[in-house]
Amino acid sequence: MDSFNFQAPTQIVFGKNTEAQVGALCKKYGAKKVLVHFGGGSVVKSGLLDRVCASLKEAGLEYVLLGGVVPNPLLSKVYEGIELGKKEKIDFILAVGGGSVIDSAKAIGYGLANEGDVWDYYSRKKTVTGSIPKAAVLTLAAAGSEMSSASVITKDEGMLKRGLSTEYAYCKFAIMNPELTYTLPAYQTASGCTDIILHTLERYFVAPSTKTLDITDMIAESLLKNTMRNCTYALSNPCDYDTRAEIMWCGTLSHNDITGDRSFGDWACHQLEHELSGMFGVAHGAGLAAVWGTWARYVYKENIARFVKLAMNVFGLPYNSADPEATALAGIAAMESYFASIGMPTNIHDLIGRELNDEEIRELAYKCSFMNTRTIGQFKKLTIHDMENIYRLAK
To answer: Rounded to an integer, what distance in angstroms lies between the CA atom of residue 30 and that of residue 32?
Structure first.
C-alpha cells in the first residue's frame, strides 16, 4: 500500500433528537455568536430551525440567520455570508442542511479568516491559512461534507464550479439524526445515495500503479453494497429509521477517507459532472450517474482487473477466465442497471431531457479542463479531447 494520510477530527453525535444538543456543543467549541446557515423552507416548515435556535438560546448563545442556499451553492451567497459575518462579528458557523449548505458554510469560514476575495482560494490563486470554526446539523445523506476536508462552490458569473480541500474545512462536530431525512423526495434520496456510491467509486478506481490495502477495498465494497441495498428499501419505506441510519452513516464514511485517501482517487466523474450541474443546474448525484457508465467504458482497459473486482465483489458476478473483459463490462452494466432501478439517469439525454450539442460539449470540456490547462483523472489521465469524447458518448 502506498503511504497515505488519514484525518477525521469531527465529533459525530448520531441518533434521534440529537439536534437538541446543538447549543451545548457550539458552546463547548468556543462559540459566542453563531451564524446559522441554511437553505430553503424545509428546515423552517419542519420546525428544525426553531429547535436549533431554541437550543442556542438555552445555551446562552447569540445568533443570526442566513438562509437561501441553493443546490450547487453560489459564490454570491458566500459573499453575503462573509459580509454578514464581519458586520455581526460572528465567531462560529452552524450549517443546518445538506452538503450544499455545509459547503457554503466552509467557504464563508474561509472568507472570514483569510484576506481578499474568497474565490481566489477556490481558483488556486491563493492558499488558505485558516477558517473560523464551523459545525453541521445534517438533513441529507449525500455529500459527506459534514466529515470531509472538501467543499465545492459555483461562481455565478460563467457558472464555474470549483472545489477546494484543506485541513481547515473540517467541522468541529456534526449532528446526525436520521429522522431528519424521512421527508426527502424519492429522487433526492436516490440522488444522494448515488453521490455516496460515487464518492466510494472515485477512491476505488486509483491509478493502475497504486497499491491498495485489501481491508480498505473490502470496506469500500461493503459500503457500496450497503448503500445500494438500503437506498432501494428507503424508496418504498422512507420512514424506516434503521434504513435511514445506514444510509446516513454510509454517506459520512464514503467521504472521510476511510474507503481510501482522496489524493489517490480518480475524481474524473466528479469533475465532468461539476460542469454539467454548473451549466444545467441538475442534481449532483443524478449527473454522476449520467456520466459514470460512459467514463467506465472509456477507461476500463487501463486496469481491467479493478473492474473485474468490482463486478465480482459488489455484484456477485462470476469470473470469466476466458474473457476477463466480459466480466469487467458486465460489472459496469450492473452498476448502470442499479442506477436505473432507483430512477437515476444513465446518460445525459435522460438527465437534461435532450442531447448535448457540439457547442455545449466544447464548452463543458473547456471549463472542465480549466481552459485547457489541466488533465483530470488518475485511473486514466484525460485530456480536453478525452473529456469531449466522454461528453459526446454520454450525450
So the answer is: 7
Express each pLDDT in 201-215 by its tens digit: 999 999 999 999 999
Burial code (b: 16+ CB inside 10 Å, e: under 16) for 55-69 equals bbeebebebeebbbb
The backbone torsions φ and ψ at residue 59, rounded to the nearest 5 degrees and listed phi first, read -85, 0
Reference 73, options 141, 162, 140, 139; nearest CA is: 162
> 174-233, pLDDT tens digit by residue?
999 999 999 999 999 999 999 999 999 999 999 999 999 999 999 999 999 999 999 999
What phi and psi, each to the nearest 5 degrees, are found at residue 187? -65, -40
pTM of the model: 0.95
